[in-house]
Amino acid sequence: MPACSIPLQAAELLSTGILSNPLHDLPADIKEAASLVEYVGSNEPCMPINWRFAESIASIKGLEGAMLNVLLKRKYGIPYQKIVIDTDHTQLYFMSPLLYTYSLDGKDVPATLSLNSGLEKYFPNYDTHDVKNLYMKTMCTTMYKTKDSRFYHLHGSMNPRITLTALDIPKSHETEVSSLDRAGEIFAEKVAEYEAEAIETLMNVKYRQAGTVAYSKEEYLASEHGKAHAHIGLYELHHVPNTKQLPTWWSPVDGKTTPERPLFGLKIVDLTRIIAGAAISRDLAELGASVLRITCPGVSDMNVLNAEMGWGKWNAHLDLKKEEDRNQLRELILEADVVIEGYRPGVMAKWGFGKDDILKLFEGKEKGIIYAHENCYGWHGPWTPRSGWQQISDANTGVSYGFGRAMGVDEPVTPVWPNSDFCTGASGAIGIIQALIERAGKGGSYIVDVALNYYNQWLINSCGEYPKDVWDTVYAKAGRPVFHARDHMVQLMLPLLRILKEMNAPIFKDGYFERRENPGVVPMRTVKPVLTFPEGIVKPGFQVGSRPNGVDKPVWPADLTTPAIA
Fold it and tell me: Which of 60, 258, 286, 440 is the most exposed place for a label (fewest CB within 10 A)?
């Protein structure tokens, strides 16, 4: 047996870290369903990151396959299907926003996380705020040392103007600054004026802007907030009993709701943006679900992410400031089985679409609703109301400090990829599949709680880091790159992507990618679905392409295979 085997360890993590983990309340037949999940791939890790990201996402995808197997047997009466997961391929799942290409003037143009006029031709820019200096906007979202020698992670969120105003940074810098280094110096000087507790209060209380002190994993787990979530695994599922709401699946579509597309006919209203929440609905669309994403034309969004995160979704606009649009959204939800919401806690409740509002909407109905909501900090504890993002969760829970110290620097460093975003998204999709199974047996409605911090505490407690000898080997092969707290994610991802390609890492095989024609928008080449079914009965994929915001009508189409809602 090799000293290190990612496929073997992914299987072990699925078994002990998830299926037998007392923090997970899973269906009784899940272990039998998971016995058909097989892992293949390279033994040794190639990613110079100390956390076991490869095993983490592979085990979570294994749980997704096992949960789908339970649904296939209970709903369709077919045997559990063999599912093969290639752990090399699976790592591309959390790298995908940086790997797709799109066709422009007959050429394949690579993805970029910067605004790109070529991409804007197909996915218009929805950055509605006025900070135009790319350097200031970029360095507004990273970590700096405080007056008392802690590190604080600033975040520009969807409006970096709030952070600039909070730190009293003059607008003149937006015309004068011409490098990331100079922008970083400006933010570093400002953050150094504050002790950690003071800037925490400034951002999260006074300005309600995302930000966090960077904690070690020990500090986080010992905190009041960490302790409030100690009883939770990857997600938390709540049954809301209602004697009027009978056990039921979703309404099938004749000839189309079959094991081939096992979630076909399932209608999902998607109230999300960016990555984690969007990944939940994208994963379900991959299995056949019909997703209608609703955004507001005046609310900021990131077109560079929508191109990859939008697969399988129609996109419509509704302005929730208008009563007629709120009524239209209620009608869409009443026809749906699932609502996914990913805005800051309390935002959708302000417009009448919070958890309690949705439950009340279905109170007298014969069919219950599944309401999944995703946030950064989790749904218990003092930090629940805060705004947050992937980098914030990584810093808050100690994942960033773990990466920095593994490289030999005593400072937190964001561990490169939006791993916690994607793993949280996959966990949310699994929670919804389980809720569908439970609703079919018990009736009622279900709440799925999912959070970036839930995943990260599971990563820390159940998955962990590579042993020192394994880490030393993979780190040496990569040339021992050293990153620092101030490095923005773009400054981390591009160099690491180059290192992996120079190493001929096994994760970039052509067979892990596919070309999608994406009619009406633009052809794209991107990462294939991770779950593979060698017997060919289940066929993951998308019946709707990736579409820009607001191009579809906010109605459910009669034909759920239509690529556009005109």
Answer: 440
